[in-house]
Write a structure and sequence with these properties.
- By secondary structure, the protein is of the alpha/beta class.
- About 40% of the residues lie in helices and about 10% in strands.
- The protein has an 8-stranded parallel beta sheet.
- α1 crosses α2.
- The chain is globular.
- Bound molecules: 6-hydroxymethylpterin-diphosphate (HH2).
- The site of 6-hydroxymethylpterin-diphosphate (HH2) has 21 residues, from β1 and β5.
């Protein structure tokens, strides 16, 4: 069955990512993890060398390159013989890192700054013909969770994404190579995240595929703690049911790329959602599925 969406498996080659930090720092372990993500059903492996969790400190480009390049090169080689042509994405806002990653075999630049952090990034993506994901973030990771405010979170995020989409196209990026992401958890309260998920369908008129990243995030821990009367946010290890629920709801509202740590369970949940709603469900507004 051809499905109208792509699964993006998360591979953080960092010591400090909020849920998998330190687990895949050694290149061999990271490549093994990337292969497992593909075996579980990932269409894209998103390799990141700098944590963007709330409070995270920036990492110099040289260190980020040292972390991600051997992993991307190793994965590119491993994937060249894999069925389904899985893609490698690089999670970076630095042009230097993105350029080297594309040369090593990545074909998607996942920029959480949406081309704002590095003035050279848009031109690199345009010239390379790579795909890109432009994400909304209010502020910067170090400080973004300090009292974020919006007029209307969905309208504000949508206006931002529209402006960034137009900027990218103006810089020469092909419109069909652009994905947009509301940036769950990036300068947003729990209420903001839930509102964005509830009204996600409003972003579809932007005309680009919507990426959603709720996997194991803090707001799920808070929702679950409140719902079950626990005093502390539910631990990262216990957020899979919340991750599945939020991804299925995002699918139902039209998201078509799902960035997750736990690929197999989300793959299965989305298969049931697709069987229930029909394969053409997501295709109705993003146009990302094969015709038929
Ligand atoms: N979330 C994170 C990192 N990159 N990229 C996109 N497009 N959308 C997201 O929601 C997103 C992202 C944060 O999650 P994670 O990579 O698991 O953690 P960390 O930033 O601590 O490495």
């Amino acid at each position: 069955m051809t499905v109208p969406y792509r699964l993006m498996g998360i591979l953080n080659v960092t010591p400090d990512s909020f849920s998998d930090g330190g687990r895949f720092l050694e290149a061999g372990a990271a490549i093994g993890r990337g292969r497992s993500l593909v075996a579980e059903g990932a269409d894209i492996v998103d390799v990141g060398g700098e944590s963007t969790r709330p409070g995270a400190q920036p990492v110099p480009a040289a260190e980020e390159l040292r972390r991600v390049l051997p992993v991307i090169a190793g994965l590119a080689e491993a994937m060249s013989s894999m069925p389904g042509h899985p893609q490698i994405s690089v999670d970076t806002y630095k042009e230097e890192v993105a350029g080297a990653a594309l040369a090593a075999g990545a074909s998607l630049v996942n920029d959480v700054s949406a081309f704002r952090a590095d003035p050279e990034m848009a031109a690199l993506v345009a010239q390379s013909g790579a795909e890109c994901c432009l994400m909304h973030m209010l502020g910067e990771p170090r400080t973004m969770q300090r009292d974020p405010r919006y007029e209307d979170v969905v309208d504000d995020v949508k206006a931002f994404l529209q402006e960034r989409l137009e900027f990218a196209v103006g810089e020469g990026v092909a419109p069909e190579r652009i994905l947009l992401d509301p940036g769950i958890g990036f300068g947003k309260t729990e209420a903001h995240n839930l509102e964005l998920l509830r009204r996600l369908g409003e972003l579809l008129t932007l005309g680009a595929p919507i990426v959603i990243g709720t996997s194991r995030k803090g707001f799920l821990g808070h929702v679950l703690a409140r719902a079950t009367g626990r005093p502390e946010p539910v631990d990262v290890a216990d957020r899979l049911p919340g991750t599945i629920a939020s991804n299925v709801l995002a699918y139902e509202r039209g998201a078509s790329v799902f960035r997750v740590h736990d690929v197999a369970p989300v793959r299965d949940a989305l298969a049931v959602a697709t069987a229930t709603l029909g394969e053409r469900w997501t295709a109705r507004s993003t146009g990302t599925t094969p015709a038929g």
